């Protein structure tokens, strides 16, 4: 086994376990989770994302593997709809198959395993990840919901253009893509952040990884799997193993490889992101299944992530 893979994963497992234990011991209450999440997303994440991208020039970014990532995601999404039908339930499962926790778990994990270069690849993906996937998912959900309402009298017709435009706006004016875009624009000016600004951003960014992973453990402690374990297990298997397999196979078939593709394959194997639950909640479909899937995929990732990381660093990087 490649020892650096496990060395990189040990802090991730440890922080998640500490967060889980803290919640079980009631040191952190369920009512506080939202506040902790806001701190991570609204303060720490933008600081790290902006500072990292503020020194990166656009010509140094490689969008080729990122394009392969979205091609693989589209393939998995379309196959799910084809096999399970064009419904909101199928759309919820399809989104769960391809939308991972790339910020909370991906940033600290990729940073530990692949260093600064790996983070640049990951941030290149993150800068358009939510925008592309969530906007596309919104269109599919709206079309599927409209189809399901077609035979229900008295239901309002969806305003597709307004929904898509709102999704695009929300995808850009967001604490994840926005600091990446602003950081990239700043980098193109050739200016350097003054120390009085750079040092606080550095300290805030360093706090992101530990606190985000603690929050994953806390959230896991408050999640209930219950009778949805079997469907959740199927969804988690596709997300943590099936999607990275499709991505890696497609990338190598098209002649891509190297560390950038390895980073994206590992990213594809991350557990399901919380945004999937927001879609399930909004469209009132599979809420319990999606919640259970997030919990199961997070636990499963403790086993599957080392396997995917080992294979990716051995045969792709």
Description:
By secondary structure, this protein is mainly α. It has a single domain, classed as Up-down Bundle (Na+/H+ antiporter like fold), CATH 1.20.1530.20. It is built from 12 helices and no strands. Helix 4 crosses helix 9. The longest helix has 44 residues. The radius of gyration is 19 Å and the shape is globular. The mean pLDDT is 83.
What is the CATH class? Mainly Alpha
* SSE topology string: HHHHHHHHHHHH
What is the end-to-end distance?
A: 15 Å
Approximate shape: globular
Beta-strand content estimate: under 5%
Mean pLDDT: 83
**Helical proportion, percent range:** over 70%
DSSP strand count: 0
Q: Sheet bearing the most strands, described?
A: none
- Which CATH architecture is right? Up-down Bundle
Layout of strands and helices, then pairs:
Blueprint: H1 3-24, H2 33-53, H3 64-84, H4 88-98, H5 106-149, H6 160-172, H7 177-188, H8 195-221, H9 229-253, H10 258-268, H11 275-282, H12 287-315
Helix pairs in contact: 1-5, 1-8, 1-12, 2-7, 2-8, 3-4, 3-5, 3-9, 4-5, 4-9, 4-11, 5-6, 5-7, 5-10, 9-10, 9-12, 10-12, 11-12
């Amino acid at each position: 086994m490649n020892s650096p893979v496990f060395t990189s994963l040990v802090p991730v497992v440890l922080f998640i376990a500490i967060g889980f234990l803290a919640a079980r011991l009631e040191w952190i209450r369920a009512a506080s989770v939202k506040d902790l999440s806001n701190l991570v997303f609204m303060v720490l994440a933008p600081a790290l994302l902006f500072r990292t991208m503020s020194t990166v020039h656009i010509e140094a970014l490689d969008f080729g593997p990122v394009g392969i990532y979205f091609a693989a995601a589209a393939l998995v999404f379309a196959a799910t709809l084809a096999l399970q039908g064009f419904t909101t339930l199928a759309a919820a499962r399809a989104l769960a198959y391809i939308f991972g926790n790339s910020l909370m778990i991906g940033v600290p994990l990729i940073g530990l395993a692949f260093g600064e270069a790996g983070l640049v690849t990951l941030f290149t993906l993150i800068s358009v990840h939510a925008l592309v996937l969530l906007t596309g998912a919104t269109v599919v959900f709206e079309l599927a919901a409209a189809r399901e309402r077609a035979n229900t009298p008295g239901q309002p017709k969806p305003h597709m253009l307004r929904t898509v435009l709102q999704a695009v706006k929300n995808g850009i004016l967001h604490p994840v893509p926005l600091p990446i875009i602003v950081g990239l624009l700043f980098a193109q000016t050739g200016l350097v952040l003054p120390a009085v600004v750079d040092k606080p951003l550095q300290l805030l960014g360093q706090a992101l990884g530990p606190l985000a992973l603690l929050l994953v453990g806390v959230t896991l402690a408050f999640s209930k799997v219950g009778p949805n374990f079997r469907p959740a297990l199927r969804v988690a298997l596709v997300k943590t193993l099936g999607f990275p397999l499709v991505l890696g196979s497609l990338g190598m078939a098209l002649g891509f490889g190297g560390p950038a593709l390895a980073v994206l394959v590992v990213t594809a194997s991350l557990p399901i992101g919380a945004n999937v639950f927001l879609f399930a909640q909004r469209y009132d479909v599979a809420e319990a299944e999606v919640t259970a899937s997030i919990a199961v995929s997070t636990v499963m990732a403790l086993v599957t992530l080392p396997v995917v990381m080992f294979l990716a660093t051995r045969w792709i990087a």
